[in-house]
């Protein structure tokens, strides 16, 4: 095996061991009904289930129809650790009452978890 092929093979092996799938689980809680006058409150909980430390995780919420989003700061999780936090999303004044899809994304450089949920805005 040539040195180049060996190098590429080792690089692939290392990248898969560093970026294993399903390294963290996400729990999301929010009020299914919101009002335009108050920010949408979102609670998230991320648990590291990997056998190693996970760096630079962030949590985002996005409503595509309204083009509004909110993002947490980045955080690190040691083996077995849990990080919880709140995000607040201000809704624009022009929002009409109705059901809207919210896209929740928790990610770092290796993994991305996406959940879609509906909220009703009164």
Tell me about this structure.
- The protein has 122 residues and is mainly β.
- The chain has one domain (21-121): Immunoglobulin-like (Sandwich), CATH 2.60.40.10.
- Helices cover 13% and strands 52% of the residues.
- The protein has one helix and nine strands; from the N terminus they run H-E-E-E-E-E-E-E-E-E.
- The chain has one helix spanning 3-18, and strands spanning 24-30, 33-34, 40-48, 54-63, 68-71, 75-77, 82-89, 98-107, 112-121.
- Strands 2, 4, 5, 6, 8 and 9 form a six-stranded mixed β-sheet that branches.
- The protein is elongated.
- Residues 6-20 have low confidence and may be disordered.
Percent of residues in helices comes to 10-25%
How much of the sequence lies in strands comes to over 45%
**Number of helix segments?**
1
Largest sheet: 6 strands, mixed
**Number of DSSP-assigned strands:** 9
How many domains comprise the coordinates?
A: 1
Q: Which fold does the CATH topology refer to? A: Immunoglobulin-like
Rg measurement, Å? 19 Å
Shape: elongated
End-to-end C-alpha gap: 65 Å
Task: Tell me the name of the CATH homologous superfamily.
Answer: Immunoglobulins
CATH architecture: Sandwich
CATH class, named Mainly Beta
- Judged by helices, strands and strand pairing, the structural class is mainly beta
Flag low-confidence runs: 6-20
Average pLDDT reading: 81
N-to-C series of helices and strands: HEEEEEEEEE
């Amino acid at each position: 095996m040539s040195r180049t092929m060996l190098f590429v093979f080792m690089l692939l092996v290392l990248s898969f061991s560093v970026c294993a799938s399903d390294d963290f689980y996400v729990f999301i809680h929010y009020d299914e009904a919101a009002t335009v006058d108050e920010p949408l409150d979102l609670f998230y909980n991320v648990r590291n289930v990997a056998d190693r430390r996970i760096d630079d995780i962030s949590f985002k919420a996005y409503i595509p129809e309204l083009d509004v989003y909110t993002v947490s700061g980045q955080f690190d999780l040691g083996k077995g650790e849990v990080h919880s936090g709140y995000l607040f999303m201000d809704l624009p004044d022009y929002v009409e009452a109705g059901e809207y899809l919210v896209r929740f994304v928790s990610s770092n450089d290796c993994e991305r978890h996406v959940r879609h949920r509906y909220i009703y805005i009164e």
